[in-house]
Write a structure and sequence with these properties.
Blueprint: H1 8-17, H2 25-40, E1 48-50, H3 52-64, H4 78-89, E2 90-92, E3 102-106, H5 113-127, E4 136-141, H6 144-164, H7 166-171, E5 172-175, E6 178-181, E7 186-192, E8 203-209, H8 218-225, E9 234-239, H9 248-257
Parallel strand pairs: 3-9, 4-7, 4-8, 8-9
Antiparallel strand pairs: 1-2, 5-6, 6-7
Helix pairs in contact: 1-2, 1-4, 3-4, 5-6
């Protein structure tokens, strides 16, 4: 199988199924699905195609972001590029909208999970194509403190970008618990179950942080119900492993990744 060197998603998937990279059964399954779907995409009956060039735009953007600790640019690991390639590379053949509207990302701590999600959130805020105006991005969790963790990382990263880019500094504002992108009235803010008003939102991207701690589907339902008018919404479930096996992350979302 000939693979282009900048098709990171397929490179990773091929390395997984060939045993060059040790991975869990579920990761192997995801890799096989990608490779199988590449073949299916060649047929008229399959509705989706894989556009790694589109995904690479997101990868390149995130790799340009300065690390919040060192201020230096850090290249993404191949598995991180695979995640982005699956989210952004697979699109509908006719509309061009993303195929996957929900991603389940679970890994051990200190593997760059939050920084990856922060990069995706910033990309959607600054360069998201749909909708063209009023893109709403929410970092959510059970508690205010947890909801603010990813949000604070995004703020820290944006501050570093603003320090080196007068253009970004001019068109963005960081106010109390909210980032605003003035060019098209988009916003990014934290949200939790104990927020006073959860109505009236039109969410493009919803981030569910440490979803394993959730006892109910309340936040998921809020996000999903607010995405009805979005042509290509996205929900990112990010979490370490947990012990609440009867919680919604394991009882409702986990079965889908095993299919």
């Amino acid at each position: 199988m000939a693979i282009q060197k900048d098709d990171y998603g397929t490179l990773y998937a091929h390395s997984i199924v060939k045993g060059k990279i040790i991975a869990s059964q579920l990761v192997i399954q995801a890799a096989k699905r990608h490779l199988n779907d590449l073949e299916r995409a060649k047929t008229e009956g399959f509705s989706y195609k894989y556009d790694f060039v589109r995904a690479n735009k997101v990868i390149k953007f995130i790799e340009l972001l300065p690390d919040i600790s060192t201020g230096k640019q850090i290249p993404l690991a191949l598995f991180q590029k695979f995640i982005i390639s699956m989210i952004y590379g697979w699109v509908d053949k006719e509309s061009g909208y993303r195929r996957y509207q929900k991603a389940y990302i679970s890994m051990a701590r200190k593997n760059g999970k939050s920084s990856l999600i922060a990069g995706i959130a910033l990309y959607e805020l600054l360069y998201g194509a749909y909708p063209q105006l009023d893109r709403q991005i929410y970092c959510t969790a059970n508690s205010k403190d947890q909801a603010k963790l990813v949000y604070k990382m995004i703020v820290s990263q944006l501050k570093k970008v603003r320090n080196i880019s007068p253009g970004i500094r001019k068109i963005t504002k960081i106010v109390q618990n909210e980032i605003r992108y003035d060019n098209d009235d988009s916003l990014l803010k934290p949200l939790s179950r104990d927020t006073d008003n959860l109505d009236g939102m039109n969410v493009l991207l919803g981030i569910l942080d440490e979803y394993h701690t959730s006892a109910t589907t309340e936040m998921m339902e809020v996000l999903e119900s607010s995405q009805g008018q979005q042509p290509q919404p996205l929900i990112l479930i990010i979490s370490t492993a947990g012990f609440k096996l009867n919680g919604p992350m394991y009882s409702q979302e986990y079965p889908y990744i095993k299919k």
